[in-house]
Write a structure and sequence with these properties.
This protein has 22 helices and 17 strands. The chain has 669 residues and is α+β, with helices and mostly antiparallel strands. Among the domains are: 7-114, no CATH class; 393-577, Alpha-Beta Plaits (2-Layer Sandwich), CATH 3.30.70.270; 579-668, no CATH class. It has a 6-stranded mixed beta sheet with strand order 13-14-12-15-16-17. Strands 8-9-7-10-11 form a 5-stranded mixed beta sheet. A 4-stranded antiparallel beta sheet has the order 2-3-1-4, with helices on both faces. Strand 5 (273-274) and strand 6 form a beta hairpin. Helix 5 (158-184) crosses helix 10.
């Protein structure tokens, strides 16, 4: 029978050739990530299905159904189907079956329950494909960057707090969808997409739908306004949909995204105004600094907790606690009230390990998710892949027993660099995603289930596979994840390790996306000493990413699909060339064939060549005689043949392979 065709094989925004690739029949598991990449073979055997079915049935046989309520059983079945049917085609009889059975079942169930609720309210109405029986709710957490990076480096435990804030962002979008689902009494299948701070939820279009949406939105806005000083907001938009709209879902997505972008201009509107009248008292924040009047030594936005040794506010203290727990805990438990360990949007959550599961009856969470492991049972009914990797001290070097499990500091991470002890900041995201969502599928093929499959698979790569890669590679375990999910990533690590990491991830991304030339990503890389303020480094790496996305071909056409390193825009193949050359020159330096002084001089000549190319000033061509002099004085054809020939090639200004990258090569060395 046919395998599931990779959804990425079907994306097309250009006339470049695409190759159809297909998935193996394997269940989702942290050990199976190397095998989730699509392959050429489109036929699978009966034995493959039989093996997968046996594993599926074994899990069902192990479950004690008497311990589950009907809604809990639906939750458990939802994740069981995700685990086993993500790789099965929903319609193997089709020419190119590219929608997974899981996403087909999920979206069908979401549509069915909406139709049921709508029909209950409109018993006398004849329904058809044009009936506006649904509403799509979209949201996008805003203010993320300022919130995550408003941490001053001179006060300790930055590494713990940075990842905690990133997790908080992910959980905000998750919890908002939970609140929406609870208000409509809907199951998780109506949570169509949750990734990278964005979410889409399908609800029935009832008489009180708009009121329920507004209540949830107002509650979230008020909480963020009061608890986070309005640093974050969640603009939301909702549109009515018919069955026809669910078939051409790209059009619905475009409409709601436009609406959502408009709503971003009205952040906290429901708090700042009511019935079109300003709530003037809300524009002045109350005095919150108490006691001796000291503000938080990290964020400078909230009062210090009395007696805190580091002078942190309650929010930064909470960040530190979450950051400390994250590498050690296996589960996340959600509660529909704010009384548990970590409050979020008037709900709360806790991070648990196995012993905490004993208190499940007493605490009664509405959902427990296994973090980065697909094992489920009657208590832990679901799982979620989140790139939570943070290097611990034993990932960096040999440590005492009592230090094991402690999070490595940024200066310890920087010390693991080869050469200069610098941190490398890497930010990357998928190119042209907006265009892909608008026109990547043919209109007649842009169904809600296809978009669900596409989004979920992207999330699987950035949240699941990245976690696998970071935890299973000796060098990559030294890299700190700030965030990864949706369509982007941000990591910090030893500068040489992060360059190699993003190079490998780009190769893996192409392979994961069926080698489709229309699916690419760009990256920016910035280097800094560990004590440089985070906010400065973030601005630097943002500029580097922007530069990479402005990369153009010889015809001045924007092509993206590149990386910025040492402020030079490069194609990924050019980065490969540079890394090969740097490896060669580093060996020459180690063996005394090439001196450090010569490396420095060559870097200067590379810079002069770039200025000549950019400005066209003849004065910069003086690098040619200077280069010639250095070669004659420092290198010999008889004694240093390889290095001599390599340097000689640089003198050919029109034909040299390495001259355009000379500054970057020598900067690396």
């Amino acid at each position: 029978t046919k395998r599931l065709t990779s959804i990425f094989s079907r994306i097309s925004i250009s006339d470049k050739d695409k190759k159809r690739k297909h998935y193996r029949l394997i269940f989702l598991d942290k050990k199976n990530f190397p095998d989730i990449f699509p392959i050429d073979d489109d036929k699978c055997s009966y034995q493959e299905y039989k093996k997968l079915l046996k594993a599926f049935n074994d899990e069902i046989d192990k479950l004690d159904f008497s311990k589950l309520s009907p809604s809990q059983l639906v939750e458990w079945m939802y994740f069981l189907l995700l685990k086993y049917t993500w790789c099965i085609p929903s319609a193997a009889y089709k020419h190119e079956p590219d929608v997974s059975l899981f996403d087909h079942l999920k979206t069908t169930a979401a549509i069915a329950i909406c139709l049921y609720d709508y029909h209950k309210e409109h018993l006398d109405e004849k329904l058809n494909i044009e009936t506006k029986a649904f509403q799509l709710i979209a949201g996008d957490v805003s203010g993320i960057q300022d919130y995550i990076f408003s941490i001053l480096p001179q006060h300790g435990k930055v590494a713990k707090r940075l990842r905690a804030r990133s997790l908080y962002i992910q959980l905000i979008s998750e919890v908002v969808t939970h609140k929406i689902l609870h208000s409509f009494n809907l199951p998780l299948c109506n949570q169509i997409i949750v990734a990278g701070g964005n979410f889409y939820v399908l609800v029935p279009n009832l008489k009180d739908t708009n009121r329920k949406i507004q209540i949830v939105q107002e509650e979230c806005e008020k909480w963020m306004f009061e608890e986070l000083n309005a640093e974050l907001s969640i603009p939301q938009a909702n549109i009515e949909l018919s069955g026809k709209d669910l078939v051409n879902f790209s059009k619905a997505l475009e409409k709601i995204r436009d609406n959502l972008n408009y709503q971003k201009y009205y952040s906290h509107k429901l708090v700042l105004s009511s019935e079109d009248v300003w709530n003037e008292e809300k524009f002045l924040r109350p005095e919150t600094v108490e006691g001796d009047g000291k503000v938080c030594q990290s964020c400078s936005r909230h009062p210090q907790v009395e007696g805190d040794e580091e002078g942190l506010c309650k929010y930064c203290v909470t960040d530190t606690k979450i950051g400390s727990l994250l590498p050690k805990k296996k589960y996340i438990a959600f509660f529909s009230d704010p009384t548990h360990k970590f409050e979020i949007l008037n709900y709360s959550f806790e991070l648990w390990d196995d012993k905490d599961l004993k208190s499940v009856t007493k605490k009664n969470p509405y959902l427990i998710l296994n973090l980065n492991d697909s094992k489920i049972n009657h208590l832990v009914r679901g799982f979620r892949y989140i790139t939570t990797h943070i290097p611990t001290k034993e990932d960096i070097s040999e440590v005492k027993v009592e230090e094991k499990g402690q999070i490595a500091t940024f200066d310890e991470i920087a010390d693991n660099s080869e050469g200069d002890k610098l941190l490398g900041y890497v930010k990357a995201d998928v190119d042209n995603l907006g265009i892909i969502l608008r026109s990547g599928f043919k209109p007649e093929e842009s169904s809600i289930s296809r978009f669900a499959t596409f989004s979920r698979m992207l999330e699987t790569f950035f949240s699941g596979y990245l976690q696998f890669k970071l935890t299973n590679h000796r060098d990559f375990r030294k890299i700190y994840t700030v965030f990864a999910g949706g369509d982007d990533l941000f990591v910090i690590g030893p500068w040489d390790k992060v360059i190699n990491f993003i190079r490998e991830i780009r190769k893996d991304f192409s392979k994961f996306c069926a080698d489709n030339p229309d699916l690419t990503f760009s990256a920016g890389i910035s280097l800094a000493k560990h004590h440089i303020p985070i906010s400065f480094c973030v601005n630097s790496v943002n500029n580097a990413l922007k530069k990479a996305k402005d990369r153009k071909d010889k015809n001045n056409k924007k092509i993206k699909d590149g990386v910025t390193l040492f402020e030079q825009m490069l194609g990924w193949d050019e980065l490969e060339t540079i890394l090969i050359e740097t490896k060669r020159i580093i060996e020459w330096v180690k063996h005394g064939i090439v001196s450090r002084t010569l490396v420095y001089n060559f870097r200067q000549y590379g810079e002069m060549y770039q200025k000549y190319n950019k400005e066209g000033k003849v004065e910069y061509l003086k690098f040619i005689p200077l280069l010639t002099y250095d070669i004659v004085r420092n290198l010999s054809l008889e004694k240093q043949k390889d290095a001599f020939l390599w340097a000689e090639d640089l003198r050919h200004i029109e034909g040299s392979k390495n001259l355009p990258f000379l500054r970057t090569i020598m900067e690396y060395v």
